[in-house]
Design goal:
Elements: E1 7-8, E2 11-12, H1 14-21, H2 25-37, E3 41-44, E4 48-51, H3 54-85, H4 87-102, E5 103-106, H5 109-122, E6 126-130, H6 138-153, E7 157-163, H7 170-181, E8 185-189, E9 196-199, E10 203-208, E11 211-218, H8 221-237, E12 239-240, H9 249-264, H10 269-276, H11 280-294, H12 299-310
Parallel strand pairs: 6-7, 7-8
Antiparallel strand pairs: 1-2, 3-4, 5-11, 6-9, 8-12, 9-10, 10-11
Length: about 325
């Protein structure tokens, strides 16, 4: 055992201790440091190193560690509480970012065209197009035709909806002739419908009612599915567009029926023309022809006579 009588105050005769214990000095110093660290040896002023019982050492050494551990645990819980408090803010921000990604508003025509061009280039399966308003403007067709030709040549299925009045547009007829040769399907309806496009049933672009030069891009799957269902219903009631330069008789009958129906509902010539995608002058010409063929003296009478003709005999 180590003889405490050979210790002078805080000093220790290391050489004598090593000789007594028959150990090398470096091993002695390592063991001494470990015992002091564990609290099993305490350097008492005037007495040197004194052995301490393990129970007393346990209390002396572990109490500070346990206190520190409790402090750290409290700190951990405090940090956890503060971090969790940010979760609602982060989740709301994440939801807002997701909503912005799913619904994007574009407020100018060049960016709308750029977005449509990009989505068309990325489409791999199908594009559904609904274009009301009668014949399409020449500048729109010039911009759209090369893109649509390329899309069709890549094997993408394309269906296009117009209003019946588009059949009287030479430019639209020429465009329809070119795209149908490449596999597109084109149909027309008598009444107005929403302007929109659907790409691969994953993304849709529709006109912004509040901004004639803007559009809204939607990627929400539920909204896109609803738009696809709407398109399919319109498609079932539409008539095939044969680009032969002449409107089919039944198409003209549908158009005239729509004119009379809207006029008898109280709409003005301008409102009817706008809804059916024709000029006011053309609308009035059709109204005159309808009243003459029915020998009607008023538009209301023309509507009544048409209704009588449609009743089953």
């Amino acid at each position: 055992m180590l003889d405490a009588s050979r210790c002078d105050g805080d000093a220790l005769d290391v050489e004598t201790a090593c000789a007594q214990l028959e150990v090398r000095e470096e091993h002695f110093r390592e063991a001494l440091a470990d015992l002091v660290a564990l609290g099993l040896l305490v350097n008492r002023p005037g007495r040197g190193f004194v052995a301490v019982s393990p129970d007393e050492a346990t209390t002396r050494v572990l109490l500070p560690l346990e206190s520190e551990l409790r402090t750290r645990r409290a700190r951990v819980e405090e940090v956890r509480r503060r971090l969790v408090s940010f979760s609602p803010v982060f989740d709301a921000s994440l939801l807002a970012r997701e909503n912005r990604r799913q619904i994007e508003t574009i407020d100018n025509l060049p960016d709308v065209r750029a977005a449509i061009a990009e989505l068309s280039a990325k489409a791999g399966r199908e594009i559904l197009t609904a274009q009301p308003g009668g014949g399409r403007r020449e500048d729109v067709l010039v911009e759209a035709a090369p893109r649509d030709y390329d899309t069709l040549d890549r094997g993408v299925v394309m269906r296009i909806l117009y209003q019946h009045t588009a059949r009287s547009s030479r430019g639209t007829q020429s465009y329809v002739e070119q795209v149908t040769r490449r596999g597109a399907q084109v149909r027309t309806l008598d009444d107005q419908f929403m302007r929109f496009l659907v790409f691969d049933r994953e993304c849709a672009v529709f006109a912004n009612p509040a901004d004639p030069n803007g559009a809204v891009v939607v990627r929400n799957p539920f909204v896109v599915a609803f738009m696809v269902e709407t398109y399919e219903r319109l498609w079932l009631t539409a008539e095939p567009f044969e680009a032969d330069g002449d409107a089919q008789p039944e198409i003209m009958d549908d158009l005239k029926d729509a004119i009379v129906r809207l006029l008898t509902a109280g709409m003005t010539d301008a409102a009817v023309a706008r809804r059916l995608g024709m000029s006011v002058r053309t609308c009035r010409r059709h109204v005159a022809e309808i009243m003459t063929s029915l020998d009607a003296e008023s538009r209301f009478q023309a509507g009544y006579l048409l209704a009588l003709q449609e009743q089953p005999k």
